[in-house]
Amino acid sequence: YPQLVDKIKARQIDAGSLRSSYDYIIVGGGQSGLVIANRLSEDSSKTVLVVEYGYIDTNPAQLEPSSATNYLSRNLFNVTSVPQTAIGGRRISVYAASVVGGGSTVNGMLFDRGSAEDYNNWAALGNPGWDFPGLLPYFRKSTTFGTPDPDIVRQYNITWDPNAYGNGPIEATFPSWQWPAISIQWQAWNEVGVPKMVDGETGNAFNAYWTPNNVDSQSRRSYAKNRYFDPVASRQNLHLLTGYRVNDIQFSSSKRAESVRIQQRGTPNGGSTTTIRANQEIVLCAGWLNTPLVLQRSGIGPQDLLSRAGVPLVVDLPGVGSNLQDHPAGRISFEYTRDIQPNQASLRNNQTFSAWAQQQWQQYRKGPLSMLVGNALATLPLPTMLSTYQSLVSRLNSQNAAQYLPSTYGPANIRGFEAQRRVLAASYASRTNGVVEIPFNGAGATSLVLEKPLSRGTVLMNPSDRLGDPTVDFGTSINPLDNEVYIASIRFYRQWMQAPSMQQLGPQEQSPGASLTSDQQLINYATQGLTSTTAHSCGTAAMMPQDQGGVVSPQLLVYGVTGLSVGDISLIPLIPATHTCATVYAIAEKAADLIKARAAGNSGTSTTTTTTTSSTRTTTSSSRTTTTTTTRTTTTTTTTRTTTTTTTSSSASVAQPKWSQCGGIGWTGSTICTSGTTCQVLNPYYSQCL
Ligand SMILES: Cc1cc2nc3c(=O)[nH]c(=O)nc-3n(C[C@H](O)[C@H](O)[C@H](O)COP(=O)(O)OP(=O)(O)OC[C@H]3O[C@@H](n4cnc5c(N)ncnc54)[C@H](O)[C@@H]3O)c2cc1C
User: Cα–Cα distance between 494 and 515 in angstroms, integer?
Assistant: First the structure.
């Protein structure tokens, strides 16, 4: 795409062409930064600058399905955590993007949302308007659903709720391929008491459900750069500066955020910097790793850290860099001794199938190579997995919180965790909110992902090298109850593998290994294998009350100063049980509305505001621009549980496509195969069109 690359390059600005001031300066042109830049620059009277440390990735391969797992180091900050004491002292690689589009440029494109309870918990922590009804309009505003291939929908009974989606820039859909064994896995979930939900995106992200990818109908990545930035890049009032780092923010004597100090990437620290003023607001969108770091370098953070680093104190906010959360995960692996064909291995060991897959992809962009990592999740409530869940909840409530938190946490951080624990305890006992995620795609091996960890970590500036890498401590499993939940999920996965339907695949446990059964053996397994992150790190500049370690208010304004806000994943107070990309779009859309509302003289404090439309009149005088904005706010009541369905199921008379199931014990679908294939018995439980 050379002509496209040239166009994109032309849209960037070089440092010499920068204005001396902008109305808004957005720190970080990652996922949230580009959303907010798009929305704020809708008003042509406002100037917007985005400063991004990374560059534009112009390689078309980064849009392909295979990019979902390549995690290129050139697009990441290559930082490693400190040794994780509770998981064998291992250092864990950190995932934080450093490229235009941020995480949305490099991520795995699994595109889902948390359950309504996940977001309602945010509101319960003192954040009116940040519950699911308050966020659903922004989930909708950011996304459009693209109707998937009807054959694949029918073949696998893929369901979704069209009400979950709107008309937004990001396209989400299902690929044109699933591996056949997934049908058996769905049956097996049902047999162990995990029902199928129509759609997780409507607040029902618990039990088992299909989940789309953020791709277009050609399986190409649909992400912040190509959907939020490229279409508006020609706006004269929007500038993107790449390859520059915001070192810090400078404040007036009245603690108003006045300017950012930027430095070209690759130049020596302590060398030359440029200062750019913000007339209205500076919005931090530097991600979970760097938003707290920029704050700390600017004098906002834990007082003792700042004094050790020699940074003059602006506001003592002990929560900056605390409350780090992610989804720790471990592998579990079963081999299918009677696996059905084709399966993932067929791409490697069946030449005919592999050639067919290549042809499908090259000719139509369909087939197995259009698939990413998978499209089905079981997000399991604790009571589903553990009959003694009440004992775990009561032990959680009676823990001395400080004993299981990082040693750097002071009283405010501890109070904040105790507030979180109150809502988490209810979620642990809930049947409509998951604590462990098990992605499934037909294979016997997968990850067990802890969705509501109790352990907390930190991101702290290095006091002797402020501009160097921060110290990241995930604190994985420092709360031993996280291990108990993990062990419960191993045992439940084993039960799933023992479900009657699953026996047709002949599952045999590889790891942890069937001989490991006691709590201690499984804790040892977790200690050796658990990783701290699934690239969903968040919470390091949390939206919580200030006396509970909070950094921003529900209006996203940083406490103790003016003119400074946070619009990225750092503001999440409690990690939701979901991959975080879709949630970040909703957060950023809502952040943009809040910023616009306050610029228009409306504090944006409405608790259930869902739609804000503005009509703007601009008058220009000789020296400055005055904008009068009339803001009309519409409040909508949204039901969090939706039962509308778009379901397509196998009908007994419809011809099944090649590779799909056409018979077997318990099969109620069609036994007719599409022309050119016949229904062949693979085992008593499974016949297939081949
Ligand atoms: C490898 C990976 C895989 C993932 N897989 C999935 C997935 O499959 N599904 C899913 O839902 N989520 C996934 N995620 C998570 C999701 O993509 C992120 O949570 C989301 O993109 C975070 O958005 P953000 O705007 O908060 O931060 P980012 O998108 O990371 O943006 C921060 C930006 O700020 C820039 N920056 C940082 N410091 C400075 C500074 N000082 N000055 C200037 N610029 C700066 C960075 O370069 C970066 O571009 C994944 C993330 C990663 C990294």
Answer: 12
Contact by Cβ (8 Å): 432, 381: yes
Residues 6 or more apart whose Cβ sits within 8 Å of residue 98: 53, 54, 75, 76, 77
Q: Which amino acid is at 650?
A: S
Report how far residue 268's alpha carbon sits from residue 271's, in angstroms, rounded to the nearest whole number: 6
Number of other CB atoms surrounding residue 89 within 10 Å? 10
CA–centroid distance, residue 102 to ligand 1 (Å): 4
CA distance 295 to 247: 9
Query: Is position 566 annotated in a ligand binding site?
Result: no
Q: Is the CB of 287 under 6 A from ligand 1?
A: yes
Could you give the CA distance from residue 187 to residue 501 in angstroms, rounded to a whole number? 6
The residue annotated as part of the active site, out of 579, 590, 596, 598, is 579
Q: How far is CA 21 from the centre of its chain?
A: 33
Which of 36, 50, 52 has the most ligand 1 atoms within 8 A of CB, as the residue to mutate? Answer: 52
The CA 287 to ligand 1 mean position distance, Å, reads 6
Q: Give the model's confidence band at 677: pLDDT under 50 very low, under 70 low, under 90 confident, else very high.
A: confident
Pocket test for ligand 1, best of 25, 34, 38, 53 (most atoms within 8 A of CB): 53
How far, in Å, CA of 339 to CA of 682, rounded?
A: 10
pLDDT mean over 301-321: 98
Q: Where are the alpha helices (DSSP H) in 440-518?
A: 481-497
Q: Would you state the pLDDT for residue 659? A: 67
Token pair, residue 390, equals: 């009440």
pLDDT digits over 645-655, tens only? 222 233 456 78
Percentage of the chain beyond pLDDT 90 is 84
Q: How many CB atoms lie within 10 A of CB 454?
A: 26
Q: What is the pLDDT of residue 635?
A: 29
Catalytic residue among 221, 227, 245, 536: 536
Tell me, using a 6 A CB cutoff, whether residue 535 lines ligand 1. Answer: yes
| 551 CB within 6 A, ligand 1 | no
| ipTM rounded to 2 decimals | 0.99
C-alpha 541 to ligand 1 mean position (Å): 15
79 appears as a binding residue in the annotation: no
Mean pLDDT of 268-272: 90
Q: Classify 620 as helix, strand or coil.
A: strand
Of the pLDDT bands very low, low, confident and very high (cuts 50, 70, 90), residue 638 is: very low
Exposure string for 583-601, b = 16+ CB within 10 A, e = fewer: bbbbbbbbbbbbbbbbbbe
pLDDT in tens, 508-564: 999 999 999 999 999 999 999 999 999 999 999 999 999 999 999 999 999 999 999
What pLDDT does residue 646 have? 29
Strands (E), 382-528: 436-440, 445-450, 458-460, 471-473, 507-511
CA distances from 615 to 544, 563, 619 (A): 32, 23, 14
pLDDT of residue 605: 37
579 noted as active-site residue: yes
Ligand 1 and 51: CB distance under 6 A:
yes
Q: What is the pTM of this model?
A: 0.89
